[in-house]
Structure formats: C-alpha cells, structure tokens
Design goal:
With about 200 residues, the protein is α+β, with helices and mostly antiparallel strands. The protein is about 20% helix and about 20% strand. It is built from three helices and ten strands, in the order αββββαβββαβββ. The strands form three sheets. Strands 7-6-10-8-9 form a five-stranded mixed sheet, covered by helices on one side.
Length: about 200
Amino acid sequence: MLVWLVEATRRWLGLGALLLLVACASSPPPAQMVGTPVPTAAGAPAPVSTPPYTLGSGDKVKVVVFRHDDLSGEFTLDGAGNFAMPLVGEIQAYGLTTRELEERIKAKLKDGYLVDPQVSVEVTNYRPFYILGEVNRPGQYEYVNGMTALQAVTIAGGYTYRAKQDALVLKRGGANAQGVLVPPTQPILPGDIVEVQERFF
C-alpha cells in the first residue's frame, strides 16, 4: 500500500511538472513596448547628432535656374520624394540635401539643354513633425527651422501634469525607428516623432 502511494505521488508530481513546462512553452513572450528609449550607459538622456537635412515627401522646394524663369518655380515632393520640372521631367529628390539636388538638376539640364546652368535650391516649406504622449494637444505640426524638442512641446500646448519633463523619446526615420532618450534641448528635424512619457510619481 505504501509503495503504491509513493508511486502515485511520484506520477502526480511528474504530471504537474510536465503541465507547467507546457504552459511555459506555450505562453507568448512578454510584449516589448514600442518606442522603448535607449539610455546612455549612465541611464541619462543624451543629445543625438543632427545630420544635414535631407529632403522627403511633403517638402516644398524653390528651384531657381538663373536667367531661365521658365524653368524656375516652387515644387512639392510627392509620396516617393520626386517632383517634375519643365524641360527635364521628373527629378528624384528623396534623401538628398539641397546642395545635392542642385547638382542633380544641373546634370539634367546639361544633358542636351543648357551649356552651364546655374541652379539654386532652398526649402520653403518643411514636412511636419509629430508629438505624442503627455502633451495637451498631441498631433502633427508644422516644422519651424531650428526648433528643439522643448519648443515642440510648447507648440503642442505644453506638458500635462503627468509628464516627465527632463527627457523625451525621439524617433527619427519613421514610426518603427528605435526611440532614443534625449534632453528637452535636443534639436529636431522635419518628420521626427517626439514622445513625452508619463513620469513615475
């Protein structure tokens, strides 16, 4: 009788362990929070470098071809970052600086149209930036040249009472980009996503 009881207990314990292993194996891994900031080694926010501005969808550029008003004008980049100019047709501008775009337009004009074209390009209207989280009016806003993350917060109506104010999460390169923890003085660029997190009370 005692041997049978010991054997039954052993079987139940083995079955319980097996069920526990199956449950653990079938449980989904914990979900990772979207936009998890990447702190520095010290865990403090640190500014990230601000590269030369490159053009993207929604930007509006003013192109001046000197002594050729018929070729000059203002153009808005389409969803693929392109625009069409008189005479030369479609220009691919996505990812270029204004200086690089000048050189691309010059090359197209030299190809059978003008001998020595002089071209100037400037951005007249930047694509918007986005601010989310603990601000009073989250959403999409018109970019102002040279603005900081704190100025973006101000444009969005300021912090809520729950906001963490000493650091923000910056995403550069789209919604799926890795968030980086930055100070409020961080310069932002058109297309950036700024997220104000909730503080721990």
